[in-house]
Amino acid sequence: MTWLGKLIAGPMLWALIFSLVYALHGWACAGQPGPEGLPPLSQSMLIGVWVLGLLAFIPLLRLTRPGAARHDRLPRLATWTGLVATAFTLFPVVIITSC
Amino acid sequence: MTDATIDPEAAERAAPLTISRTPPRRALALHRELTRVWRNDRGLWGQITAVNHTTLGLRFMGTALVFFAIGGILSMLIRAQLATHQGAFLDTELYNQIFTMHGSIMMFLFAIPMLEGLGIWLLPKLLGTRDMAFPRLTALGYWCYLFGGLIMLTALLFGVAPHDGWFMYTPLSDATHSPGINADVWLLGVTFVEISAIAAAVEITVTILRQRAPGMRLTEMPLFAWYMLGTSVMMLVGFPPLIAGSVLLELERAFGWPFFDPTRGGDPLLWQHLFWLFGHPEVYIIFLPAAGAMSMIIPVMCRTTILGYGAIVAAILALVFLSFGLWVHHMFTVGIPHMALAFFSAASVLVAVPTAVQVFAWIGTMWKGHPQFHLPMYHILGFFLTFVMGGLTGVMLAIVPFNWQAHDTAFVTAHLHYVLIGGFVFPMMAAATYWLPLITGKRRVKGLGEAAFWVILLGFHGTFFIMHLTGLLGMPRRVDVYPDNPEWVWLNLTSSIFSFVLTIGFAMFVLDLILQVTLGKRESRDPWRAPTLDWAMPIPSPSYNFASLPIPQHLGKPARDIMLALARGEGALAGAPRGRRELLVTSVGDARPHHVALLPGNTALPLWLSASIGVFVLMMLASQYLLAGLSLMPVAVLIWIWARGMAPAGVLGEVEASPGVHLPVHHRSAQSLGRSGLTAFLVADGTLFASLMFGVAFLSVVTSGVAPPVATAQSLHSAIGLAAIGVALVLAARCAQTNTPRAVAIGLGSNLLSLLVLIWLAITQMDDPTIHARDALRAALAGYAGLHVLVAACMAAFVLDQFRREEITPQTQGAFGAWRMWQRFTSVVVLISVLVLAAQAGLS
Amino acid sequence: MTRPALILIAALTLAACDGPLSTLHPSGPIATEIAWLWWAMLVGSVFITVFVLVLLVLAFGKPRQVQARFWTHGLGLWFSMAILSSVLGAGLWVGERILPRDDGAVTVQAHAFQWGWEFTHTGADAQEERTFDVLHIPAGQPVDVLITSEDVIHSFWVPQLAGKMDAIPGRTNRTRIEADAPGIYEGLCAEFCGTGHARMRFSVQAHEDWPPDLSDQGATSQEGQP
């Protein structure tokens, strides 16, 4: 993978997981205009995708090793950015149940 | 990838780049030699044929300033109207046109062109090169911007300007609720202007990645370049959804294709999604270049280096990505489930973190250094005060329940002005006062600039601070009168009075610029003692920027220490000994010299091309659809002539860039700038396709409207037709592997065949696209595919023509590489479309 | 700049809190929760603004030895993350509490058109009662409003009772409002909807008894007829 590739891999992964969870959520909630909650099965599916997404950062963290030089540090920082963003923006799948 | 793999980049990094110095020559002789080659033609005609980045960058910024003044005058009319509750003088229709045009002008005709202009003007100077990657494209962008802007202004003069608000929510903007051409002016005019945004994005990306001075690694380039790289990539991905949305809405208005009509299977929310998919990143597209200017100016004003370079680059990266995950916070009240709102609320809150990282890095830089009170510093402090408050109200608006109260009220108006004026206008004023000596070669007239700053600061906060309260007291946006609410009167009156103060401040700022240009004394070179290449040149900057291009030993030094060496030709590619515009192209990561690009000279072709696109736009506006179709013929012919201008000609031997460094010219290089540019363009094109696909998915999953009628398109005939198209395009993509006339001819044939089949399908099999949104989207996809196949066919024909002219040889590829990339892209997107259609048919 | 501004805003809100469309003068539990959220965020924002300004003022002086990580990670990352997480948490918590739920609340309908509102509630004898530009609700209990639109996008907003919700053609949106006491509350269309946008007002009348006896109010229900 080129250096630029490593640099954007983490944020790209966030974008992918974020779009996927949003799309699945839209699909699960489609046709439910009422105040009913999300079916438990759909919710577990969303949580599953989120957790798998978080796990997907492990190989990426292994790929972008920490280093002293800016050249090595930046991809590492970017990967952490993606990981934190995935954790932070999608944690509502665990605490919110409404559709 | 395992740890055992040898990283080729690491190996490359291990060997430092060394380029030896060229023996010095007389600076004046070099200057004359270069000026002859790089200068614009004389007179007014010379302005028309100019393609030089300094000329065009300044012209972009100058024109944007004029539009800023016009938008400002419109805002004064708005404030005058709102000063009293009965609304003194505008009728509602005119008022609606004025606030719509105020927003549209400030966004599309001021902010975006201003930042494009800054990037185009500054980047080559900062990176140590002589021009942008595609000078003719710069000029094309400028003319499209100018003509599009003029179309919108003319509409305003004739009282038929857009009147549906700058985000053009449909159904209000559809043909039923907005008859007349008002909405078409917006859709067509803005799309016309966006050609310049895409053009600028493509060439800014390529210039930053491929034209840095040899040895200037990505990780060491000035932060402004990182910011502009982020901006341009965001523009490549952010603008296509808007273009897709505008094209679909115009199709709905012109031909009744119901993409957004809920009674025929469409959905008004699709427009909102497409618009805000562009609209939110847009805010960061505007902010990033301004922040880039701050990152350049603050260290110089504080006599130090920037603190936390790595953290800032990571913050830019985070902003670039996160800002695509916030668009729904403009749609918190449309009835989206709370969980989805929570995702976007969290993302909107999170995006404040990289912003905070930058703000604290800048303040830390000030602590580290010794801040000095020059004029740019005033505007920087104005930025901090205003932008921090705007950022905090932004966080408030990201909180869903509060947003439900504050959305669409004056609170949002106040917030967005704090962010845009704080985050863009103040930094731009800092940038103007910082770089003006390089533009004019003159020194500032003391006093007026400082006074202008204080008046602007007072006027701004006086206008917008209490507007937060006006909003919290319930005043909605976009009302022209409020007879029943006396409690809003004094708030509005105060805002109106201070808005006039603000305007006086801006007038003083412009007067200060004029005084500097006319009365300023001659400034010496490098007045700020800056460490960057933009100041390592004479002032005002010459047309060619550098008499010789900086080499590794010139980098990272104060501008004044290397200025003389560069002027005397000690760097690379000294002078213009071959009488043509040459610059050095380097590799993406480590900026190793790769080849020499020969740039086109002055030409009026960009003007003719944008004028012929303008004719098309005007015909569409006049509902002359047949003539509009015909007017695309000159566009096609001019593009062909344009491409002919890129054909290899003249001496194509190797060039000695520096002693012992022999480089091929770009015609003989597979990794040319053109190739990088096409890659960047295809990213934008791919996003456009993805936006259409998003439309298909959204309408089939989320929209629970009218069920579509049974499609006749789902017949055996169409299946066979689609399969034939698929096979033909796979064949065409395979042909594009082999650089022989025979393969290219077969490729041309396959493209033509699939085009014919597509036309046959459209005529005989396709359902009427006016009946249901599903069929309208299918027709739009067919149009997208057809256009791409047609272009692929034209490119194959162009390559064949190049074989006939014997321009393609084993060393020179001609346009073959471009065709190959386009053909692969086309084949892939058309195949995806076919598969999606099949899946949709199978599901229903 | 900030201290005078603070005093100013305090004086202003005392004077002007009770406007008929003021979100700062809530008249029901939902609007009250949101108003509290606002006051808390305002206090936090004032502190942060002052903090940043103090840092800026202190920057003007002799060059100092600084720790880059303190600024970028300490303040930029951790400080902001701590504040933002708590704000987000509070927002989501309030959001969940004020959402419409499946609890048998009274349901009324609001149908928007260019330019007015047609409201429907279930009156005595399970009769559908239609009114124009006046919405009748019971006081002291949550009411769900089902919002639809005839033509373009409008938005249903009664600032003293709850946040706004758009009326979108082809969709039915649900929002919850609640008034503490009987009375009349002002409402308006919050989404720009054409030349009649500014006049597209309505009011909400909260009643002690439900369903209300509208026979003596015949004039009210006729008033807004288009």
UniProtKB/TrEMBL annotation, chain A:
Parts of the chain that traverse the membrane: 47-65, 77-96
Record keywords, A-Z: Membrane, Transmembrane, Transmembrane helix
Protein name: Uncharacterized protein
Automatic annotation (TrEMBL), chain B:
Biological-process GO terms, alphabetical: electron transport coupled proton transport; oxidative phosphorylation; respiratory electron transport chain
SUPFAM superfamilies, per the entry: Cytochrome c oxidase subunit I-like, Cytochrome c oxidase subunit III-like
Catalytic activity: 4 Fe(II)-[cytochrome c] + O2 + 8 H(+)(in) = 4 Fe(III)-[cytochrome c] + 2 H2O + 4 H(+)(out)
Enzyme Commission number(s): 7.1.1.9
Location in or out of the cell: Cell membrane
Entries under InterPro entries matching the protein: Cyt_c_oxase-like_su1_dom, Cyt_c_oxase-like_su1_sf, Cyt_C_Oxase_1, Cyt_c_Oxase_su1_BS, Cyt_c_oxidase_su1_bac, Cyt_c_oxidase_su3-like_sf
Pathway membership, UniProt: Energy metabolism; oxidative phosphorylation
Pfam families recorded: COX1 (PF00115)
Cellular component aspect of the GO annotation: plasma membrane
Membrane disposition: Multi-pass membrane protein
Transmembrane segments: 56-78, 98-122, 142-161, 181-202, 223-249, 269-294, 306-328, 340-363, 375-404, 416-439, 451-473, 493-515, 596-619, 625-643, 678-703, 715-736, 743-763, 783-800, 821-843
Origin superkingdom: Bacteria
Family to which the UniProt record says this protein belongs: Belongs to the heme-copper respiratory oxidase family.
Name assigned to this protein: cytochrome-c oxidase
Source organism: Roseinatronobacter bogoriensis subsp. barguzinensis
Source lineage: Bacteria, Pseudomonadati, Pseudomonadota, Alphaproteobacteria, Rhodobacterales
Gene: ctaD
TrEMBL record, chain C:
Keyword Transmembrane helix in annotation: yes
Signal sequence, start to end: none
Cytochrome oxidase subunit II copper A binding domain span: 103-220
GO molecular function: copper ion binding; cytochrome-c oxidase activity; oxidoreductase activity
Bilayer-spanning residue ranges: 36-58, 70-94
Places the protein is found: Membrane
Catalyzed reactions per annotation: 4 Fe(II)-[cytochrome c] + O2 + 8 H(+)(in) = 4 Fe(III)-[cytochrome c] + 2 H2O + 4 H(+)(out)
PROSITE patterns reported in the protein's UniProt record: COX2 (PS00078), COX2_CUA (PS50857), PROKAR_LIPOPROTEIN (PS51257)
Top-level EC class: translocase
Similarity comment text for this entry: Belongs to the cytochrome c oxidase subunit 2 family.
Protein name stated in the entry: cytochrome-c oxidase
